[in-house]
Amino acid sequence: MTVKTLYRVKFFDTDTMGVVHHSNYIRWFETGRVEFLRQLDITLTELMNDGILFPIVEVGAKFHAPAKFDDELEIVTTAEALTRAKMKFSYVIRRCGEEKILVEGTSMNVFTFGGKICRLPEKFFSRLERGLD
User: Fold this and answer.
1) What does pLDDT average to over the chain?
2) What is the model's pTM?
3) d(Cα 22, Cα 28) in Å, to the nearest integer?
4) Which of 56, 60, 72, 103 lies most in the core, judged by the most C-beta atoms within 10 Å?
């Protein structure tokens, strides 16, 4: 499953060179990941209410071209791998209507309970499985 999320670049997203600061792309990966989960009827609040946290243990990005103020971006989020203990996502960010990739990246999240890695309960795992292509 691939989820597309739109985001318009705000002025505060840019740096003194007039381009989006690199750290914002990691935040937009999160935006895409949260929307991906939402499309599977899972919210972070629901996970947290059951005592499950979903921290990132690895993240990476490759920057191809800069985004600028007021660009409308498309964040494409795809689930690459899932086990009961972790999930890997990939991301592609483009300007809407363009094929050129601005940034691509990945993140690995683990499921934790009480500060320790845990096996995700079936009620969440079965929903997440639907998100794998």
Assistant:
1) 96
2) 0.94
3) 10
4) 103
Structure tokens at 48: 């947290």
Single-letter code of the amino acid located at 6: L
pLDDT (tens digit per residue) in 17-45: 889 999 999 999 999 999 999 999 999 99
Say how far apart CA 47 and CA 28 lie, in whole Å. 20
E strand intervals along 2-55: 2-8, 52-53
Secondary structure class of 100 (helix, strand, coil):
coil
* Sign of the dihedral through C-alpha 63, 27, 111, 42: negative
Q: What is the pLDDT of residue 11?
A: 95
In the numeric block, which tokens belong to residue 49? 């209410």
- CA-CA distance, 24 to 131, in Å (whole number)? 25
- Residue 6 CB partners (closer than 8 Å, separation 6+): 72, 73, 74, 75, 96
Closest by Cα among 125, 46, 61, 114 to 87: 125
The one-letter amino acid at 53 = L
